[in-house]
Amino acid sequence: MTRKPKVLTFDVVGTLIDFENGMKNALLQILGKKGATLDFEAFLTEYRALRNRPDKLLFPEDLAPIYLILAEKFSLPTGQGEEKAFVKSATSWPAFNDSVEALKRLQKHFHLVAMTNARRWAFDGMDKTLEYPFFKGFTVDESGCEKPDPHYFSYVLEQLAPDGYTKEDVLHVAQSQFHDIGIARELGYTVCWIERRKAVGGGFGGTVAVRELTTPDYHYHTLAELADAADCGELVMVA
What we know:
Helix content: 25-40%
Pfam families: Hydrolase
Protein name: Hydrolase
Structural class: alpha/beta
Oligomer: single chain
Shape: globular
Order of helices and strands: EHHHHHEHEHHEHEEH
Keywords: Hydrolase
GO molecular function: hydrolase activity
Number of helices: 10
Number of strands: 6
Radius of gyration: 18 Å
Organism: Gluconobacter japonicus
Strand content: 5-15%
């Protein structure tokens, strides 16, 4: 007998919110006319290497020191609070083109829960951009740790327990193999990988790379494809 998920837990940044284009837009605004010379893919490669430092600030506040580190290499202006503007831009990063509509469709079938490594202040802006689709939303401020720490997943399950939900009810949806797909599969979740970078030729972009990809239970390139599967009743729990 097959079981359908009752809850979809979502990574937010990179899965629903297009942080790469959000950062690019912020850099172009800071650079002005000089933005035409920015090699953004090269910037993402350097950014990715700095994202997982053990001494880093919480996201997106860690964007400030990263900006200053990369400023010289990419001719970014400093001295006028540009790094603070780069951080603040996180509240207005765009959603992927299909995110809002797909989330509305998914709401008809499941409770939607956000699990983001972003601070609460940044998530509040992202939640607004997504038109407030979530039944519940959790940030690094509440969890006290960042994914892929398994304690983040344990914390969310504890918060969902009073509503009668267990891990067996949850389908975890994410873009990041490093932060989400690998650890969630290891913990026994049914997982759905939204491979957002497929549209631009693959690779890891601004997301921390992994040596080996984890095979998910469901693999789509857009959130709309996931919503299509839900509308057709094709999503079942397989973990």
